[in-house]
Specification:
CATH topology of the largest domain: Arc Repressor Mutant, subunit A
Helix content: 40-55%
Strand order of the largest sheet: 4-3-5
Radius of gyration: 18 Å
Structural class: alpha+beta
Number of domains: 2
Shape: globular
CATH architecture of the largest domain: Orthogonal Bundle
Largest sheet: 3 strands, mixed
CATH superfamily of the largest domain: Winged helix-like DNA-binding domain superfamily/Winged helix DNA-binding domain
Strand content: 5-15%
Length: 143
C-alpha cells in the first residue's frame, strides 16, 4: 500500500498518518509473519523511541482498518501479516520455528466435509499446522 493511499484510508476514518504507523505497517510487510515483539525490534532500528504499547495499539488499528490480520502460531503472541495477501495455511516447524505457507485448497475437502456434516465453517486463513520442516527432518532433529 502506498503512503498516499494509507493516508487517505486513515483520513477517511478521522485519523492521521503518523511516521510510527507507517513504520509499523512497513515492518509487518517486510517481515511477512511477525509477532508484535519482532515488529517492535524492526521499528526500533529506525525509530528508537517507539514503545511496545504503541506497536500493539497500532497493530490493532491496522487490523480494524483491514490492512493486517493475525493468527496464532504458538502459545505466545499473535503473528501478523498483510491482510491483502492470498489466504494461506501456516506450516510451523516446532523445532526451528520457521513459518511456511501452503495453498488452502489442500484443506478444502476437509473444510467442505466439516461444513456438510457439522455446519462448521473453517476459517482457513487462521489454520496453522505444526510439525517438523524438511530441513530439521533431514537433520534428524525432532521437536
Amino acid at each position: 500500500m502506498s503512503d498516499s493511499s494509507l493516508a487517505e484510508l486513515l483520513r477517511s476514518r478521522g485519523l492521521r498518518l503518523t511516521a510510527q504507523r507507517q513504520l509499523i505497517l512497513q515492518a509487518v510487510l517486510d517481515l511477512e509473519h511477525a509477532t508484535p515483539e519482532q515488529v517492535h525490534s524492526a521499528v526500533r532500528e529506525v525509530a528508537a523511541g517507539v514503545n511496545i504499547t504503541t506497536i500493539y495499539r497500532t497493530l490493532e488499528l491496522l487490523e480494524r482498518l483491514g490492512l493486517v490480520t493475525h493468527t496464532h502460531l504458538s502459545h505466545g503472541s499473535p503473528t501478523y501479516h498483510a491482510a491483502g495477501e492470498h489466504q494461506h495455511v501456516h506450516l510451523v516447524c516446532r523445532n526451528c520455528g520457521t513459518v511456511d505457507e501452503m495453498d488452502p485448497q489442500l484443506l478444502q475437502p476437509l473444510a467442505d466435509r466439516l461444513a456438510d456434516e457439522r455446519g462448521f465453517l473453517v476459517d482457513i486463513g487462521h489454520v496453522a499446522l505444526f510439525g517438523v520442516c524438511r530441513d530439521c527432518g533431514e537433520c534428524g532433529e525432532q521437536a
